[in-house]
DNA sequence: AAGTAACCGAGACGGTACGTCGCGTCTTACG
DNA sequence: CGTAAGACGCGACGTACCGTCTCGGTTACTT
């Protein structure tokens, strides 16, 4: 999983074809493109190594040389178009940041091709602990850190209470969105995500004051 | 999907054996049991029709006669042991109900065998819209209705504001739990779920009053 | 093989249907008819117990109750229409008897439905010694005896030499016909079979005299 | 049927191993050998693609890649060991040639493993016109041509009448042998085949002279 | 007239083998 | 040395029939 060895990123236009100078960039892109297309056209089960190879005009061995499985290829497919697509913003106010980000997240998950890939990967991760780990380490953790930074900026600005557990706060924010997308299939339009932000901010505001509803006595 | 036709339904010791009167109850249970065991022991990929058949001492054709796929079998596996396992309680107070339920939900998803099946099904549903639909219609909707009733009781008692959108409220409650389980893999122990309930109640309380933090002007 | 128990042959029109008095004649005929049709329409491989049962509107068990296999059914099929179809004639002269019989045999094997069944059975008998034995004992031996009697009559009339080995003579007569039908697929029209008879008779005639060509000295 | 594409043809140690240059010769031989063994040990019904694959240590797909059915494999099995096994001799005299050849043929059909394969193929050909055609075109016709040449040499030497229909003559010669082997199961030892030759030669001799028995008047 | 027993249809069952698909590994020839 | 090509052993797929079984219904001989 995730054993994809990227080619010489910095080295400029390395672009060979059946030679001794490193992997073929053409082949790499053809594979990723083919995998993406197949996922969108035929769904996860329709993505096979043989299918990718045939569609990309590439030998199976070439795929196995650089990736470990079809999930690995999809993973690169995902990284290719999605890495910077989900950028927690920095607009200056919590409300603005959060509403913007949740709208962006919802749209990404439901409308973007890369979002479809992510859903497929998260789905597959339920069957495959190794993939789950790779997925988190290679992507979700970075994203999460950027999301946490967004919250941290709000704390710095005094918009969120200092003692807030940012991890849990984040789950309370994005959790409902993921839940609708992955589990209920319910709508996640801007009105919905905006209200999620409202509720989140209301809870945070209340947490900074004496709780108006006394805790459970039992 | 979900094309399993149950036999003698409600009552009566209907216990046939492969004749014109319907399917063999023995075979049905052996299949479901085998699928469950295989999922727990070897994971989703380790569940195969051939494997189930061999383990259950049943012919493949018998499985194909009554179920459409391994997912279908797992679905019945899930219904078998989980239908009543997740019962939103009615303890008399919101806080008590919600903390109890979220603890129960988290434990189910992370510790119970049926929870493992549910995670697998939700994962597979990401690749299979038909399964997603069946899963919701056959199970998740009922559960959700019971969950909504739990919230509704709290509204009736005046513990939650009357104008609350219960659907969104529910997503804000259980969403963070599912998110941790399905996406981040973070912990969902009682302390965590209790704090989720705290935050939820705080937000609801605030919603019933003039908001102490003014909404974003932009 | 050949375990078909025929019903009370002599007892008149025994014709019941789901009772305790013996097998259903309707079912028996429907089965035989279905098997015959299937053989002609779809060939030997297209004859299956399930297919016969479905086509005859009969339960599989009914077939297994009275026959042992599809070959057994075909066997009855064959006996039904072919037992008396191949009757070595008694016209008074060898030449007449033999030409008539060989023409009849060739036509039966190549044109008659029952001939198709016989070819199928002989074919199957190559794979199945048990069937081969049954086939000979139940049918071919009787036929052969009638054929031998035909030759014996000719010997009695002095038309064939007294010392003739009738078994070998018969093989020299019908063997070429079977060979063409079963092996080469060559034509076996009346002109051909008539010439076979000519040659046979010529050899027999020569055997009654001093051989004009001296035997090999080596 | 007979769609087996042979590799390196005539000569040269072409010995590849499952690459772009053609099929694996090892696999081909293992398959043929396994099929042969299974036929001899368990009969035609005991020959299955799965059985062959297992015994040969070969994947089913490899068999299906190069052959179309078990009959196809048996066909190659047969060609492998039998092509030159039946060689009509050229000893200089008809009697010598024919007695030798008929003995050889009878022994081949009744004792040789390849003979068993041929019997199975001829049997199967009764159910399968395609196989019948292939069998004739791929093997029997060549053999027949060699047999006809043997007779033709005798005609050239003046040992057989010039006007003889060689095709029919051949059927009269080998037909009785095939008949015994395929139909009656009667013995075909040297004494028997020698007498078949005697009769054949007697008929031919008589055909060259005024017939001592006048033809039928009716 | 009721009971009973043999045969019927239907069809589910545990199996074997089918022919296909995709896996991941391999060997080669080319550039 | 990386590539396209593709054969290989392997495992699982979903299907077709096999031969066995249990069932409820029908019918005609008991009693």
What is the CATH class of the largest domain in chain A?
Mainly Alpha
| Overall tally of domains of chain A | 2
Greatest contact between two chains: A-B, 56 and 56 residues
**CATH-derived topology of the largest domain in chain A:** Tetracycline Repressor, domain 2
**What is the assigned CATH homologous superfamily of the largest domain in chain A?**
Tetracycline Repressor, domain 2
SSE-based structural type of chain A = mainly alpha
Series of secondary-structure elements of chain A, N-terminal to C-terminal: HHHHHHHHH
- Would you tell me the overall average pLDDT of chain A? 86
In CATH terms, what is the architecture of the largest domain in chain A?
A: Orthogonal Bundle
Nutshell version of this structure?
Chain A is mostly helical and 218 residues long. Chain A is 65% helix and 0% strand.
Structural topology:
4 copies of one chain form a homotetramer.
Chain A: H1 25-42, H2 49-56, H3 60-66, H4 70-82, H5 94-111, H6 113-125, H7 129-156, H8 166-184, H9 190-207
Helix pairs in contact in A: 1-2, 1-4, 4-6, 5-6, 5-8, 5-9, 6-7, 8-9
Chain A binds a DNA duplex (31 and 31 nucleotides) through residues 16-24, 27, 48-51, 53, 57-62, 64-65, 69.
Summary keywords:
homotetramer, disordered N terminus, DNA-binding, 218 residues, Arc Repressor Mutant, subunit A, Tetracycline Repressor, domain 2, mainly alpha
Please, could you describe this protein's structure?
Chain A has about 220 residues and is mainly α. Helices cover about 65% and strands about 0% of the residues of chain A. Chain A contains 9 helices and no strands. In chain A, helix 4 crosses helix 6. Chains in contact: A-B, C-D. The interface between A and B is large, with 56 and 56 residues.
